[in-house]
Specification:
The protein is mainly alpha-helical. It is 67% helix and 4% strand. It contains 10 helices and 3 strands. The chain has a 3-stranded antiparallel beta sheet. It is globular.
């Protein structure tokens, strides 16, 4: 199962990146029309409408970034009125933020419609839903912040697939973080780690941990998911 997790990971990443690339111009135009700098709203589009987050939550999601940069971006969203912070430091999406995200969902629906019209998108989305439901979140990890994704009634299957793929990437991200912590590294030191036996051990441990939710599928379903996602690239 670990080999499956290793093989499907770059396919999932490519599917995710391709949709963002296809939607980039419309996304930029949408942000300009809304008069805001979207920042991490794009990444958190399927999390913030479903639940509030804390600054600690965001620091885990952005574990490889600068704390100062994250604080600055949170400040930008508070000033733009897309986020509001209560007295306990909990960050919630505002009506303006939700409006921006709903517009983003519409943009992504058009993008996946262009890209995936010829494929069994509903079937693949359903398989990804089973994988996400089976995924066990690492305590205090990013996956617990990012899943399950926001799926309002009427969300097109292509957007369900896109957001489920995006959320699943955080399960692997947590698996990787658990692996490098087990090896005695930090976020800073693992970024600087080159090729070699230690890197190989961390990747092997990552794949072992990341394989967990795929056990919910049969062998045939795993093959269908892999081949189906590969065809979308």
């Amino acid at each position: 199962m670990a080999s499956y997790a290793a093989t499907i990971a770059p396919v999932i990443n490519a599917v995710h990146v391709n949709v963002h690339a296809s939607a980039r111009r419309e996304r930029d135009d949408h942000a300009e029309a809304c008069g805001l700098t979207p920042g991490f709203l794009g990444d958190l589009r399927y999390a913030l409408p479903a639940r509030p987050v804390t600054r600690d939550d965001l620091s885990v999601v952005h574990r490889y970034g600068s704390a100062a940069d994250l604080d600055a971006e949170i400040g930008d969203h508070l000033r733009q009125g897309t986020l509001a912070e209560d007295g306990d430091g909990v960050l919630r999406l505002t009506a303006a933020g939700l409006s921006y995200i709903h517009g983003l969902y519409e943009i992504h629906a058009k993008a996946v419609g262009r890209l995936w019209a010829a494929y069994d998108v509903p079937g693949l989305a359903a398989l990804l839903g089973e994988v996400l439901e089976a995924a066990v979140a690492e305590p205090g990890g990013a996956f617990a912040v990012m899943a399950p994704p926001y799926e309002p009634e009427g969300t097109p299957p292509g957007v369900l697939l896109f957001n489920r793929v995006a959320a699943l990437r955080y399960h692997r991200a947590d698996a990787h973080a658990a692996a490098w912590r087990e090896a005695g590294l930090t976020a800073d030191t693992v970024v600087e780690l080159g090729c070699g036996p230690l890197r190989d051990r961390i990747e092997e441990d990552t794949n072992r941990r990341a394989a967990q939710p795929y056990a919910a599928l049969t062998g045939g379903e795993r093959e269908t998911l892999f081949e189906g996602l590969l065809a979308l690239i």
